[in-house]
Amino acid sequence: MLQAIDLTKRYEDQQLALDALNLEIKEGEIFFLLGANGAGKTTTINLFLNFIEPTGGRALINGIDVTKEPLESKKYVSYVSENVMLYGNFTARQNLDFFAKLGGKTNLTRDDYYMRMREVGLQEEAFEKKLKTFSKGMRQKVGLTIAIIKDAPNILLDEPTAGLDPKAAAELLQILVNLKRQGKSILMCTHDIFRAKNIADRVGIMKEGRLVMVRTREEFMEDDLEKIYMNYMQEMVIEKV
Amino acid sequence: MIKLFIKKELLENIFSFKFLIMFLLMFFSLNTAIFIMTKDYKARLQNYDILKPSKNEAFAITYPTPFSIFAHGLDDNICNLYQITFGGQIETGSQKQAINKIYNFFNTPDLLYIINIILSFCAILFASDLITREKEQGTLKLIFSNGIKRPAFSLGKWIGGYITLIIPIVLSVLFGLIFFIILAKIPFQFSDFIRLLIFLFFVLVYLAGFFSLGLFISIVSRSSAFSMFFSLIVWVSLVFIIPRSGNLVAKQFINIPSVQTIEIKRSQIFIKAIFEYINSHYEKSKIPQGIINQQNDKIREDYLNKLNAVESIARKITSISPASDLTFLCTDLCNTGFREEQRFKTFVIMFKEQVKNFDSDSDGNLVGDFTPFSYARSPLSDFFNLAMMLHFSILIMYILIPVILGYYAFLKFDVR
Ligand SMILES: Nc1ncnc2c1ncn2[C@@H]1O[C@H](COP(=O)(O)OP(=O)(O)OP(=O)(O)O)[C@@H](O)[C@H]1O
Ligand SMILES: [Mg+2]
User: Fold this and answer.
1) N or C: which end of chain A has fewer CB within 10 A?
2) Is the dihedral of CA A232, A234, A236, A239 positive or negative?
3) Is A204 close to ligand 1, i.e. is its CB under 6 Å away?
4) Which residues contact B378 (CB under 8 A, 6 or more apart)?
5) Where are the alpha helices (DSSP H) in A59-165?
6) Per-residue pLDDT tens over the stretch B77-134
7) Residue B145: its chain A contacts at CB < 8 A?
């Protein structure tokens, strides 16, 4: 379970990036966080991972406060970053091996890694190739495999479909649905409204650091999610003008 | 967890292009140096065999040490030919004495020079993007999205990176030793290998300093580009600017007269003496050569004192640079340094005292029944003294300070 309680972040330059965010993502739930560039999505994820200190409020992972017990709380979370680069001189399997061990999975075999890579749709011949020869989408899949291998109850994804071809993106989302069925709590930041419509349980729209709208699946299926989103964005444009 | 990071660091670096380039550079530069200096040593050894004094020759000369291959230092001065002439004067041989000893230290392309310049450059540059690169490629975020303690990573990085750095050095030096020194039948004894091990140990400590500096810079820098640029500046200052400015700065404190000034003073003394002679003692006495000599000696002594003072201050200033500390340590260790030169000169003076009262033949050479000059280089035990400890502690400081600062800086490091 992921919880944000009045979570606030004001950067050193006084930029209020996140304004009292209240959010709870339960087991077996996929939450999509939408919002324009600079809305505060990445900031939210960074706060959950304790990469930055909140200036107010708390972030909890499985009930553990991430600022008070950062090491303990991170045991219960997997993370897929925007642009997975990994170690270019390592093969896909070596990368998996290293990060699996960091995540506490010390007794996996070569075949385990191969199996997981097959699951995310990586081509067999890529398994033992150096990562620097990989395309962006292929790297993204390795990144996702790392998160899956850690097998943590919570998953944070920051625009994982950016740069993926439609088929790969669809595959990735299918994997998320499977993970959700296993009872994971998933927070995904994205610009991809169409995918959100397909698989999200709840969708939130963030604007200038505030979560301005949250809709459950039933609610946004009735309305046109795209229209809602555009309305919110439009307001912003008008305000700016 | 540290073990995992060390292993990753080794694997990642050893199979990288950067490592290959570094290996080749180190291998060729170190072995070229060993090759050239071994040839130089053998040539000088032959030279010594020809000049070596036989019985009843008032020459002082000593053999070149095979350690000059590693640290040449002032060995050309030490191996000079000193001839004792009538009246107890010491004349140097045809090879000119180095006037500025500090410069002399930094010019011969011996092993020490390569280590001082090229290897320190490799070390600092190699370390300078170890952290920034991980940040730029996003692996740092991924690593710390796990419950990993920061020191496990930073210490693992230090150890793993340092091991990768010294692998090519140790291999190259071993290769050089086997192919150029053992096969060339350089007279090394077992005890000499202990000296050699200490030499290598100093080198590893020295490079650990540059490596730590680079890693520290990498922690406090925002990007690899900046980190490399900053490392370059630090390296140039430590390796070139500080050692070379020691003399210049020292001269600001002590006013050394130029050779021309001294010559003018000398002629003034002479002219004054002549005038006095003409004025007062026209008929009775000879030109007061004694007084002229006395005064000239005083000028000379004064000049030498000042020169020594400059040298001692320069030595202190240059000691700020680890490159200088390594040079002083290694030349002393290899018996080619200041200490050995002083010791040798004392022996020459003792020899002079012993032979100066013998008569000279028509050519001005001393003749008589005296034992020829012989000199053995300092034993290893002489090396361990306070000055050595000071230089060594400065080298250690160059490791400790960046490691400690880097350790704390990394606890607060922004991994994003
Ligand atoms: N290190 C920082 N220092 C100061 N301000 C920052 C910093 N990082 C982000 N910000 C500001 O915080 C706000 C939110 O940024 P954030 O990266 O969370 O946006 P985002 O929603 O992830 O955007 P995008 O869709 O472009 O990824 C932005 O206005 C940004 O300028
Ligand atoms: Mg973002």
Assistant:
1) C
2) negative
3) no
4) B335, B339, B340, B343
5) 70-73, 92-102, 110-119, 136-150
6) 888 888 877 666 777 765 444 444 554 555 677 889 999 999 999 999 999 999 999 9
7) 49, 74, 77-79
Ligand 1, atom 16, lies closest to the CA of A40
Residues of chain A found within 8 Å of residue B141, distances taken between Cβ atoms: 49, 51, 79, 81
pLDDT at B251 over 80: no
User: Tokens at residue B358, please?
Assistant: 């013998």
Specify the residue for token string 């993970």: A179
Q: What is the pLDDT of residues B304-318, one digit of tens each?
A: 888 888 888 888 888
Residue A206: HSE in the Cβ half-sphere, 13 Å Cα cutoff: 28
Q: What is the pLDDT of residue B97?
A: 43
Amino acid at site A102: L
Q: Are strands B82-85 and B59-60 parallel, antiparallel or unpaired?
A: antiparallel
Do A149 and A99 meet the contact criterion of CB atoms below 8 Å apart? yes
Return the structure tokens found at A201: 């349980």
Task: Please report, as a single letter, which amino acid is at residue B228.
Answer: M
CA distance A218 to chain B (A): 33
DSSP states of B204-228: HHHHHHHHHHHHHHHHH-SSHHHHH
* Better pLDDT: B208 or A241: B208
Q: Which ligand is nearest to the CA of A39?
A: 1
Instruction: State in Å: Cα A39 to ligand 1 middle.
Output: 7
Ligand nearest to the CA of A13: 1
Nearest to A102 among B16, B141, B143 (CB): B143
State in Å: Cα A42 to ligand 2 middle.
4
- pTM (two decimals): 0.89
pLDDT tens figures, B313-363: 888 888 999 999 999 999 999 999 988 988 998 898 888 888 777 777 666
Note the ipTM here: 0.93
Q: Please tell me the residue having the least CA distance from ligand 1 atom 2.
A: A11
Choose among A51, A85, A94: nearest Cβ to B139: A85
Which helix (H) or strand (E) segment is A190 a member of?
none
Nearest to A196 by CA among A210, A176, A181, A179: A176
Q: How high is the pLDDT of residue B190?
A: 79
What token pair was written down for B182? 């053992």
Nearest to B142 among A71, A90, A99 (CB): A99
Nearest to B134 by CA among B12, B248, B260: B12
Chain A residues with CB-CB distance to B148 below 8 A? 71, 74, 102
Q: How many CA atoms lie within 13 A of A135 on its CB side?
A: 9
Distance set, CA B176 to CA A35, A202, B26, B45, B179 (Å): 63, 69, 11, 20, 5
Cα angle B280, B286, B288 (rounded to 5 degrees) comes to 80
Asked whether residue A177 carries a pLDDT value surpassing 70, the answer given is yes
Min mean pLDDT across A182-186, B53-57, B107-111 is at B53-57
The average pLDDT across B174-180 equals: 84
Which residue of chain B is at minimal alpha-carbon distance from A144? B142
Distance (Å) of CA A229 to CA A222, A224, B17: 14, 9, 48
**Of A1, A4, A41, residue with least CA distance to A196:** A41
pLDDT, position A34? 92
Report the percentage of chain B scoring pLDDT > 70.
91
Mean pLDDT of chain B: 86
The pLDDT assigned to B164 comes to 95
Between A91 and B183, residue with greater pLDDT? A91
